[in-house]
Design a protein that fits this description.
Order of helices and strands: HHH
Strand content: under 5%
Number of helices: 3
Helix content: over 70%
Number of strands: 0
Distance between the termini: 47 Å
Radius of gyration: 52 Å
Number of domains: 1
Structural class: mainly alpha
Shape: rod-shaped
């Protein structure tokens, strides 16, 4: 086997070993990356969930304030109208008077209630201190139902949004995992192909090494036979010269 072939095979073996080491490092890096991505996804999900809940609570707080003010104005309107009816005003006059004064009465009631917080345990004041009529109670009950329905729908919408975001992130993570699995499978196939090639080359190298060893043995055997024959020829020539000297007194060159 020539030196060029030997170094080429040695280089391929080194490349295969490098690929094996790279695959091991890649597998370890994939595991670590998967853990980090999982932790990051959890952190991002929790953070987004907190932001969504905070934003939702802020919106809900503003909506509740608006609904409360609207309910308060509606109840004040009904109470003022009820006061005017009890004073003997007609229904139309009571309605007109209530529309004209309900806003100012509402603001005054809010101001009085705010000032009274530090002095008393609270309680209705102004127009709202009047005895509630069945109509007012029905309106309040309807508003309470509306608020409960709104809160339920808002919670359901937040849960649906959170679920959809989680499902999207899970689908994206699964897609990335499938892509990495394909890349890993292709790399493993490449490594297996190189291993087969390396095994074939190793078999060729072993076969050539055996052939070279056999040739070396044959060469040694032939060289030993040549030396043996050369010694036999030299001995024969020496014996022949001795015989010629004995017979003729001199030896021919």
């Amino acid at each position: 086997m020539s030196m060029e072939t030997y170094f080429r095979l040695l280089k391929k073996a080194q490349v295969l070993e490098t690929l094996r080491s790279t695959n091991s490092s890649l597998h370890s890096s994939e595991e670590q990356l998967r853990k980090l991505q999982t932790e990051k996804a959890k952190t991002d999900t929790v953070q987004q969930r907190v932001f969504l809940e905070l934003e939702a609570f802020q919106k809900q707080y503003v909506e509740v304030q608006r609904f409360f003010l609207e309910h308060l104005e509606a109840m004040t309107l009904l109470c003022v109208k009820e006061e005017q009816l009890q004073r003997g005003s007609s229904a139309d006059e009571a309605q007109r008077h209530a529309k004209l004064t309900s806003e100012d009465r509402t603001l005054q009631d809010l101001q009085d209630a705010t000032l009274a917080v530090g002095r008393t345990a609270g309680g209705p004041s102004g127009a709202l201190s009047s005895p509630s009529s069945p109509m007012v109670e029905q309106i309040c009950a309807a508003y309470d139902l509306q608020l409960a329905h709104y809160d339920t729908e808002l919670t359901r919408a937040l849960q649906s949004t959170f679920t959809n975001e989680c499902l999207d992130k899970i689908a994206a993570a699964e897609a990335r995992e499938r892509e990495r699995a394909k890349e890993k499978s292709a790399l493993l196939e490449r490594i297996e192909s190189l291993e087969r090639q390396n095994a074939e080359l190793a078999s060729v190298v072993a076969s050539r090494d055996d052939a070279n060893a056999q040739l070396e043995l044959d060469w040694k055997r032939i060289d030993a036979q040549r030396l043996s024959q050369q010694r036999a020829i030299e001995q024969f020539a020496s014996g022949l010269k001795s015989e010629l000297r004995k017979r003729y007194g001199s030896s021919r060159p």
